[in-house]
C-alpha cells in the first residue's frame, strides 16, 4: 500500500468515527435544501425583474456553506484540540502528504454532501416554482438537474472547504477560525448590499470570495490553503 | 456574586487574546463602517444639497411654490381652490435611489400625483425647514390640515374646495367648506416658534411619483418629479396684514435637496394660477428619500458582531478545553451563578466595546458623508448607539449560552452568526411579507433599533425592510434578540446543573 493511500485511510477513519462529521454534513445538505425550498415556495414571478429560478432554488447555499466551512475547520482543529496532531505527524512525518490526505478526504466528503444538497434544492425548485409563475409562458424552462450552476455550486462548496482548511491550519483554534471564515463568507455580500453607490457595490462584489464567482473564490481558497500549508510545514505542531 | 464577578473578570482580562479580540472588534467595526460609508457618498456635480432639518430636528422635504405676504398679528385668509391638475413623468425604470432630478416632462402625461397639495399656508419664514401650518386639497386624499411636517389631520373627502386658515399668536385653525358659507373646523394646533410676523398665502406642491411594485429591489413605473397646477379664486383676508403686494417665491426650488421642478404664478384680478413641485413633508428612506439614514454609517457592526460571537462562545468553551471548568465549579458549586457572572462580564464588556465602536463609526460616517446624512434628534442618535451596542451584547450572551450548551465554540458561533446574518442576506430577494416575517422571528429583528425614519401615512413610499423599514418597533426588535439570548442562557444553566462537567 502506498504511503499516501494509507494516510488517506487514516484520515477517513478519523473523520468517520467522529459523530460531528455525519451530523454536520447531513445538516449542511438538509438545511440547504430546506432554505432553498422555502425561498422557492414564497418568491413569485415578477415582471421586469432579473429573477433567476436556478439561483432562487439554490438560495440555501448561503447557509450550507457555513456548515461546510465549519466541518472543514473542525477536521483540522479537532486534531489540535485532542492532541491527535502529534500522533498523526509521528505516523506520517511527511506533513505535505498528511495535509494532502486530509484535504482529499474533506473535499470528497463535501463534494458528496454538496451534490446531495444541490440536487435536492434543484429538485425542490423544479417542483415548487412553476406554481409561482415560473412557467414556459413567462419564458422559464423547467430547471434541469445537470446545469452549469449545479456543477459550479458543488465546486463552490469544495473551495469553501479548502478555504476553511487553510484558515484552520493558520490559526489552529476552532473558534477563531470559524469567526474568520464566517467574516469572509458574509461580510462582503452584506457590505455590498448596504452600500448605495453602484460603483462601490461592484468593487466589493468583485473581491469577495462568495460574491465574485468561482474564479475569485479559487484564488482565495488556494491562497489561504497554501498559507495554511506553509505554516504547517514550518511551525512546530 | 461579587467574588464570582471578579473571578470571571480576571479570567477575561488575563487572556491576552480575548482583550485583543475585544479591541479588534472595535477596530473592525470602525474600519468596515468607514469603508461602507465611503461607498454611500453620492456623486453630485456641484456639491450635494444639504438635507433640510425640520423644527423637531428630523429630516424634511420643504419644496413648494408660495404666493405670500406678511401677516403681522392675528388674521384669517380664505380661498376657493377651483381646480387642481398636474403633469406626471414618462414611465421608465429606475433601480434604487438615483432618480434624475429633472426628467423632461414634455414626454410625460397629465395626471395628479395623489399627494399633490394646493391650499393655504402660514409659515415662520421662507427658509426651508421653517415651522408652518397649512390646509390643502390633495390629488386623491381629500382635504388635509398639516403642520410642522410630521403632523397630518384628515378633513372630509374631496368635494369641499373652500379653505380657511385663522392665525392668532402661535395658534392656527384650519377650516373647510363646500360653499364658502357653512364652515367646519378641521383642527387647531399650536405651532411653536411661529414669530409675530409670519408669511401667509397660497401654496402648491407635488411630490415625486414612484409607483413601486411589490418586489423590493425594483421600482418600476413612472418615477420622477411631478408638477401640479391649481387655480384659486375668491381670495379674501382679514386681520393685521402688512401693507405690500403678493409675492411669488420658489421655496427649495430645482436646486434644493428634494428633486423638484420650477414653479410659477399667474394672476388675473383676484384669481391666481399657481404651479408648484416638491413636497412639504417628512423625508423618508428608500426610493423616495434623498439622503442617507444614520444606520448606513454603522455597517461595520456585522464585523463586530462576528468578533463578539467568537469571544462570547470562547469565554465558556475555553474552560472545558483547559479543564478549568472543574476548578471553577469546585470554587463555586452554585453553577447557575457562574454562568450568570460570565454573562454579566462578557455582556458589559461587549456593550462597552459596542458603544465605543458605534460612536466612532457614527462620527466618522458623518465626516465622510457630510450633509447627506439625515439629521435625527439627539435622543434618536443615543437610541441607535446604545441599541447597536446592545445587539453586540445580545449576540455575545447568546453565543455564551450556546457555547455552554454545546461545549464547543464552533457550533455556537456558527449558529448565532448564521441566525443573525442569514435573514439579512436572504430578505432582499424575498417578497416584502416574507422578509417582514423573517425580521419578526429571527434574531435579526434587533436591527429594528437602527430604524430612524418612521412610516408616515401621508408620504407615498415603499415601506419595506429593504428600504430600512422594519416590521417591529425598535424596542420590540431588540427584545426578540434579548429573548433568544435569555433562552440560550437559561437552557445552558439548566444543562450545566444537570450534566457532569
Structure characterization notes:
- The complex is a heterodimer of chains A (237) and B (501).
- With 237 residues, chain A is mainly alpha-helical.
- Chain A has one domain.
- Helices cover 77% and strands 0% of the residues of chain A.
- Chain A has ten helices and no strands.
- Chain A has helices at residues 3-16, 19-42, 53-57, 61-82, 84-91, 95-128, 148-171, 174-194, 198-207, 214-234.
- In chain A, α1 (3-16) crosses α6 and α6 (95-128) runs antiparallel to α7.
- The mean pLDDT of chain A is 87.
- Chain B has 501 residues and is of the alpha+beta class.
- Chain B folds into two domains: 2-9 and 18-39 and 293-452 and 463-498, no CATH class; 60-282, Sandwich (Jelly Rolls).
- Helix content of chain B is 37%, strand content 25%.
- Chain B has nine helices and 19 strands.
- Chain B has helices spanning 2-14, 16-38, 301-322, 324-331, 335-369, 378-406, 409-426, 432-441, 474-498; strands at 52-53, 59-62, 64-88, 109-110, 117-123, 132-138, 143-147, 151-154, 162-168, 171-177, 184-190, 198-205, 209-210, 223-224, 227-241, 247-251, 264-268, 271-276, 280-282.
- In chain B, strands 3, 4, 5, 6, 7, 8, 9, 10, 11, 12, 15, 16, 17 and 18 form a 14-stranded antiparallel β-sheet that branches.
- In chain B, a hairpin with a 3-residue loop joins β7 and β8 (151-154).
- In chain B, α1 (2-14) packs across α5 and α3 packs parallel to α6 (378-406).
- Residues 92-107 and 213-222 of chain B have low confidence and may be disordered.
- At the A-B interface, α2, α4, α8 and α9 of A face α2, α3 and α7 of B.
Amino acid at each position: 500500500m502506498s504511503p499516501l493511500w494509507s494516510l488517506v485511510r487514516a484520515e477517513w477513519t478519523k473523520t468517520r468515527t467522529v459523530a460531528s462529521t455525519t451530523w454536520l454534513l447531513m445538516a449542511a445538505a438538509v438545511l440547504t435544501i430546506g432554505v432553498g425550498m422555502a425561498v422557492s415556495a414564497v418568491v413569485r414571478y415578477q415582471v421586469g425583474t432579473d429573477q433567476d429560478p436556478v439561483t432562487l432554488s439554490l438560495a440555501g447555499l448561503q447557509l450550507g456553506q457555513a456548515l461546510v466551512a465549519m466541518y472543514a475547520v473542525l477536521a483540522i482543529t479537532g486534531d489540535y484540540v485532542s492532541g491527535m496532531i502529534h500522533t498523526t505527524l509521528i505516523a506520517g512525518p511527511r506533513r505535505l502528504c498528511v495535509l494532502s490526505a486530509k484535504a482529499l478526504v474533506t473535499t470528497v466528503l463535501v463534494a458528496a454532501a454538496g451534490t446531495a444538497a444541490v440536487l435536492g434544492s434543484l429538485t425542490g425548485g423544479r417542483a415548487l416554482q412553476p406554481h409561482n409563475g415560473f412557467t414556459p409562458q413567462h419564458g422559464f424552462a423547467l430547471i434541469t438537474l445537470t446545469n452549469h450552476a449545479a456543477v459550479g455550486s458543488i465546486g463552490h462548496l469544495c473551495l469553501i472547504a479548502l478555504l476553511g482548511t487553510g484558515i484552520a491550519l493558520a490559526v489552529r483554534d476552532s473558534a477563531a477560525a470559524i469567526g474568520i471564515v464566517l467574516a469572509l463568507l458574509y461580510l462582503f455580500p452584506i457590505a455590498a448590499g448596504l452600500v448605495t453607490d453602484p460603483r462601490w457595490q461592484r468593487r466589493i462584489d468583485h473581491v469577495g470570495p462568495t460574491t465574485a464567482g468561482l474564479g475569485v473564490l479559487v484564488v482565495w481558497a488556494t491562497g489561504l490553503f497554501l498559507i495554511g500549508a506553509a505554516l504547517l510545514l514550518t511551525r512546530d505542531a | 456574586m461579587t467574588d464570582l464577578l471578579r473571578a470571571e473578570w480576571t479570567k477575561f482580562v488575563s487572556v491576552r487574546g480575548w482583550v485583543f479580540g475585544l479591541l479588534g472588534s472595535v477596530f473592525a467595526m470602525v474600519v468596515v463602517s468607514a469603508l461602507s460609508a465611503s461607498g454611500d457618498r453620492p456623486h453630485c456635480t456641484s456639491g450635494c444639497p444639504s438635507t433640510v432639518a425640520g423644527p423637531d430636528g428630523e429630516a424634511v422635504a420643504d419644496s413648494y411654490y408660495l404666493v405670500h405676504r406678511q401677516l403681522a398679528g392675528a388674521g384669517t385668509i380664505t380661498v376657493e381652490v377651483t381646480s387642481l391638475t398636474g403633469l406626471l413623468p414618462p414611465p421608465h425604470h429606475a433601480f434604487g435611489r438615483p432618480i434624475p432630478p429633472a426628467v423632461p416632462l414634455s414626454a410625460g402625461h397629465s395626471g395628479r400625483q395623489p399627494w399633490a397639495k394646493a391650499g393655504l399656508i402660514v409659515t415662520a419664514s421662507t427658509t426651508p425647514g421653517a415651522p408652518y401650518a397649512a390646509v390643502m386639497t390633495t390629488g386623491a386624499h381629500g382635504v388635509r390640515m398639516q403642520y410642522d411636517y410630521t403632523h397630518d389631520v384628515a378633513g372630509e373627502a374631496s368635494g369641499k374646495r373652500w379653505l380657511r386658515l385663522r392665525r392668532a399668536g402661535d395658534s392656527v385653525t384650519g377650516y373647510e367648506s363646500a360653499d364658502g358659507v357653512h364652515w367646519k373646523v378641521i383642527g387647531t394646533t399650536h405651532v411653536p416658534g411661529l414669530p409675530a410676523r409670519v408669511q401667509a398665502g397660497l401654496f402648491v406642491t407635488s411630490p415625486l411619483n414612484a409607483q413601486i411594485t411589490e418586489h423590493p429591489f425594483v421600482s418600476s413605473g413612472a418615477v420622477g418629479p411631478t408638477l401640479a397646477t391649481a387655480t384659486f379664486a375668491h381670495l379674501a383676508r382679514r386681520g393685521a396684514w402688512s401693507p405690500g403686494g403678493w409675492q411669488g417665491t420658489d421655496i427649495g426650488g430645482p436646486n434644493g435637496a428634494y428633486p423638484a421642478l420650477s414653479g410659477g404664478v399667474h394672476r388675473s384680478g383676484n384669481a391666481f394660477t399657481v404651479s408648484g413641485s416638491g413636497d412639504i413633508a417628512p423625508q423618508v428612506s428608500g426610493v423616495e428619500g434623498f439622503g442617507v439614514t444614520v444606520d448606513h454609517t454603522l455597517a461595520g457592526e456585522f464585523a463586530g458582531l462576528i468578533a463578539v460571537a467568537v469571544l462570547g462562545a470562547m469565554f465558556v468553551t475555553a474552560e472545558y478545553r483547559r479543564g478549568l471548568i472543574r476548578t471553577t465549579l469546585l470554587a463555586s458549586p452554585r453553577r447557575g451563578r457562574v454562568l450568570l457572572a460570565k454573562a454579566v462580564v462578557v455582556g458589559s464588556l461587549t456593550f462597552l466595546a459596542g458603544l465605543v465602536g458605534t460612536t466612532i463609526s457614527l462620527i466618522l460616517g458623518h465626516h465622510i458623508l457630510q450633509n447627506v446624512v439625515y439629521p435625527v434628534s439627539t435622543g434618536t442618535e443615543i437610541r441607535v448607539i446604545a441599541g447597536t451596542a446592545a445587539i453586540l451584547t445580545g449576540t455575545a450572551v447568546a453565543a455564551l449560552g450556546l457555547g455552554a450548551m454545546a461545549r464547543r465554540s464552533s457550533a455556537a458561533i456558527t449558529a448565532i452568526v448564521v441566525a443573525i446574518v442569514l435573514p439579512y442576506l436572504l430578505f432582499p430577494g424575498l417578497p416584502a411579507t416574507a422578509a417582514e416575517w423573517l425580521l419578526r422571528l429571527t434574531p435579526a429583528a434587533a436591527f429594528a433599533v437602527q430604524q430612524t425614519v418612521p412610516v408616515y401615512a401621508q408620504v407615498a413610499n415603499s415601506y419595506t425592510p429593504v428600504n430600512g423599514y422594519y416590521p417591529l418597533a425598535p424596542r420590540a426588535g431588540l427584545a426578540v434578540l434579548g429573548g433568544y439570548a435569555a433562552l440560550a442562557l437559561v437552557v445552558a444553566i439548566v444543562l450545566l446543573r444537570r450534566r457532569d462537567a
